[in-house]
Structures are given as structure tokens and as C-alpha cells.
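Recap from last week: sequence in, structure out.
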Amino acid sequence: MAASLDNPSVQAGELYAGYACDESMRAAVSSGGIVSAVLIHLLRSGYDGVLVSRISSDGATSAVTRLVRSEAEVLEHAGSSYIDTPVLQAVDDLCASGALAGRRYAVVALPCQVRALRKKILRQGDLAASLYPIIGLFCRGNVKPAFYDHLLDREGIDPSQVRSLRVRRGQVKGRVEVVLSDGRQRRLSFSHLNACRTLGLHAKRLCLWCGEHLAEEADLSVGDVFLKEFKNRLIKHSAYVARNAPAAALLEALIDGGQITCSHVGMETYRRRFRRVERFSNDLASRRLAARLAGRRTPRGKLPGRFSVFRCLAWTIILLHGRLSERRWAGCCLYAMPQWWLAAWALAVKALSRF
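Predicted C-alpha cells:
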């Protein structure tokens, strides 16, 4: 299938939507397959490897970041996980082993990890040539491994028997695919997982105070597009943004080669459509009082955002659920609640966040 391009060239800072043209590649990914298409293109172009992450299990659910060198391994690690990943540790290990000298690696990371990598590159300028591109994933919060342990226990699955777990997003819904050590496959409710995430169960604490979700310091940012005009399309699209000229040239090479498609959306259009979501996610001022009400520690100094009673109530619900989930008895009770109960609270949070 030939790639389509609405504009004569990809412009840095602009947001586009598209998908991988290889149907077999899209079958292995959770969204449009843009990240996998880029990584495979880089490997075919002579890159020495790419750092990717996935959920794994070694007696308990955990996240692993691995250096992979084959197309099959890239697709094996494709898919969403919503879990904190050890990307920075993997980069440190590469540096300590001396494996970076004279070699090129791509890195897939979360926005907070991208910022940390940029600081590391500023301190060690020679890393810039070895770690490029840094691909940042859109992110609005991650969870601790205990989140998945509880979900698996609820379904009668022993976490130590899980070989892999990946989340596949649809335009509205999705599915959670679990592969057990004996090869059997199970599916978990994506709606239940999403409700638990929305309520902040076992949320990573740093995520509770994060106001940067689009990986603006990455070379290439990629995430779900979630715009109305893309919901009814047969093929799910990804949103992507080249943050600099070399990244724009990389995307153009994939488009010209018929590897990905490209439709111009525009960053301003995206931000306008999601202004309420952005306002809620970036309003740390309303979060401060909510944190105090929930018994959470708060950062010092002035926080960005304009205080809203409704957003404060939404964050109070999230922070209270998150705190309760970390207590053994309360956490077990929360995950055992009927799906409709958790879904109702999640809907209440979403409704309050819109004000």
C-alpha cells in the first residue's frame, strides 16, 4: 500500500497521524505501529540495536528493557504496558560496558525518562551520537508492578506463570493479552484495567506530579491519536511529532519508502481538541489541596495551574484510591470490587476533570 502525504514535507513540531503500511507489523502492535516501523527501518539501515521495554515475569510481574537487534524482537516487545520501565538503567549498563563507543542505538522511553536522558547527554556529550533517535511515548501516568499482580490474582492467574502481558488499544476499547509459561493465552478486561488506572491504583508516585505528557524533549514523539475523525477508520492510527529536522527527515524517508502513512493534523488542532484533558493533567495547583486531603506529601514552592474545585475533587478521588491501593487489605478489597463500581468512580473522575 502506498503511503499518503498531505503536505510536501514533514515539519518539525507539527503533529501527524499515520500507521505502518506492513499489515503483519500492525497485527503485532497496540496502535498504528509507527514506533515499530521506525525501529525496524533503523535496524535495516545498519543500526547496532534498539532499546525497547515490555512486561515480563520472574516470580512476580516486572518490566524489562532489552537491547534487541532483530525485527522479530522489535515486534515481540511491541504493545503498550503502562508500567514504569528500567530504560535509564539499561542505558547506564550500556555506558558501563563500553558498548556505546562508535555504535548507534535508538531508545524508546517515557517523557520523564527522555528528560533524564537529555540531562545525561548534556553531562556526557559523546552520548549524543550513539543515542539517536530518542523516541518518546505519549504518557499520562504509569503503575507499579503490584497493579498487574492484583489484576492477575483477580482472574485466578499466578503472576509467576506469566511469560508476557501486553495491552492493545482500539479506537475506544482494547484488550489485555496474557501469555502463560505453558503457552496458554488469556484475556483480561481492558475496561477494568483502564478504570483502575484512571482511579490511580498503584500509580507511580512521580507520575502524580508530572505535567509533561507529550515527550517534548524527544527526537520523535509518538502516541495514540484519539481524534473523532480517526475513530471509524478500519486501520488504527498513531499520532507522531518530529521534534527536530533530522527526525523529520527520518520520517520522510519512511513515508517516501512506503513504510508509513502520513496525514497532517497539526499540533494546535490536537491541543485545542484535548484542551480539557491537558488542563486537568497540567493543573498541579488543584492537586496540592487534593494531596493534603488524601494525606500525600506535596512538592514545595508554587505549582502551575489555576485552582478548580471540580478538578481538586477529581484528584482527591484519584489520590485516595491510590493511597488505599498501597495498603494490603484495602488494595485487595479495591481490586475485588465489581467492575461497574470502579467504572462508576472512574466516570465520576472524568466528569469532574472536564470542568
